[in-house]
Specification:
mainly alpha, single chain, 8 helices
Length: 214
């Protein structure tokens, strides 16, 4: 990449190893959900499994060379787009209305996820320009998004241990895909975005340049 063009978006190398890994991981998560094995896990096994999967995702995407190359080169729009899945928070509100999820999880977690997803959408639409304020907005969004997901995870873990029946919906499809697949990826993407923001490398950040006057 030409170092004199700081806003150039880097091209990612072959993405096949990443997509293959994600397909295998998603298939295993689906299989576990369909088999009923996830729903049958007694606490704190589901919570421990989520922690292990998150640590594994962080390790793999930082230590496996082919995957690390992809993560380092991929357009940050890909990482931010992943967070649109957090509109699933609206489903939490629906399940609360049906009595399938407790207030303590569904309302704070659902509203928080909707907020983070909507904020991610504004970033992807390029509403913010490449200015100090725009860069701060990315940093604040990343901090808020990580805090939100960690609060959702800790609340789910606490309630899952204290009242497993109240959180049983998270152990059944489709929501079982959240802790077994999506949440580890979301946390890993926040970590990757922190790395990029720490170096103030905006080359792969999805921001628009401010229009020139004249």
């Amino acid at each position: 990449m030409d170092p004199t063009r700081p806003h150039e978006v880097r091209e990612a190398p072959s993405s096949h190893p990443v997509f293959a890994l994600l397909v295998v991981w998603l298939t295993l998560a689906l299989g576990a959900g369909l088999s009923g094995r996830v729903a049958a896990l007694p606490p704190p096994a589901p919570q421990v499994l989520l922690i292990l999967l998150t640590l594994w995702a962080l390790w793999v995407f930082n230590r496996v060379r082919a995957l690390r190359m992809w993560v380092d080169a991929v357009d940050s729009r890909v990482l931010v787009t992943l967070h649109l899945t957090r509109f699933v928070g609206a489903y939490f509100l629906v399940l609360y209305g049906r009595g399938d999820l407790p207030f303590a999880f569904a309302i704070p977690g659902g509203l928080g996820d909707i907020l983070v997803a909507a904020w991610a959408l504004t970033l992807l639409l390029g509403i913010l320009v490449d200015t100090p304020a725009g860069r701060r907005a990315y940093r604040v969004w990343n901090v808020v998004g990580l805090i939100d997901i960690l609060l959702v995870v800790t609340t789910a873990a606490r309630l899952g241990v204290a009242a497993p029946a109240a959180m049983a919906a998270l152990l059944r499809l489709p929501l079982s895909l959240l802790p077994r697949f999506l949440v580890p990826l979301i946390i890993a993407s926040h970590v990757q975005l922190f790395r990029r923001l720490r170096t103030t490398n905006l080359a792969a950040l999805p921001v628009c340049k401010a229009p020139h006057g004249g």
